[in-house]
Amino acid sequence: MKKIGRILFLLFMVAVLWYLFIKPYDYVVRFPAKTTVGTINQSIKSWYAGIEGTQLIDQSKFDELTQQFNFGDSIHTYTWKIEATTDSTSRVKVYIKDEAHSLANKLTIPFSTTAIEKRSEATVKEFYDVLNLHLKRTRVTVNGQDSTRATYVAYVPLKGQQAEKAKGMMYNYSLLTQIMLQGDVTLNGTPFVEVTNWNTKTDSISYNFCFPIIKSDSLPEHPEIRYKQYHSQKALKATYNGNYITSDRAWYALETYAKSHNIPIDLTPVEVFYNNPNMGGDELQWKAEVFMPIKE
């Protein structure tokens, strides 16, 4: 019995030492979300960007983000870990640590409701509310396998952050419209974006903003406009409704779908747009068809 008592005492002391000095966080908040890992990842980044005194310190993992908040004289580190539970749902765990008062928090949390608990729950709830509002303003439906349409195009090559894609489209929509009109070029469909490179670690893309046209022998010349034949591709297709700034939410939905169904894809999405953002209107009525090419 004494031996068993010593073993239990040692285990208890190991647990206490781990809890006080090794455990990497003071408090954890958990919540489910009816969306993909990618949408949560991007929503966290856009949310924290609007909060003074925050910085993203690690985004090397797609399903894990670490950021710091300055709350008065305290620096709180938030580590967001996101796990997919289905094609369209996720589970989020947020691990919070007060860098200067971690030991004091660990000593008091078991016995009372502490300031870090209240602050952490309020901060995570703020994001949770922002996320759910965003989800009400967008809709993604995965349609299954399809193909993109072959066409000749006039296009402008662009690069930048994913969130800047809509701005690049709006600026060059007027340019392409004007030059094609002046050159008496016949359009052959709605504009689309062809992503040629997607860096998921930096959220940056290279892409072509394309106007489908009828090829002719006298196409207008412009230093920013190029021409080429776009070829059809087998692809997974999704329908996106919402502001085109966040149409990349469909990219993540298609990537998640492909992974769960063991479908090899190229991360070079194509987006076909059916509304002109310059005209405004109810964003939930804006439509884009999004394709993720399937590897042959």
Automatic annotation (TrEMBL):
InterPro entries: GyrI-like (IPR029442), Reg_factor_effector_dom_sf (IPR011256). Residues 188-295 form the GyrI-like small molecule binding domain. Gene3D superfamilies: Regulatory factor, effector binding domain. This is GyrI-like domain-containing protein. It comes from Dokdonia ponticola.
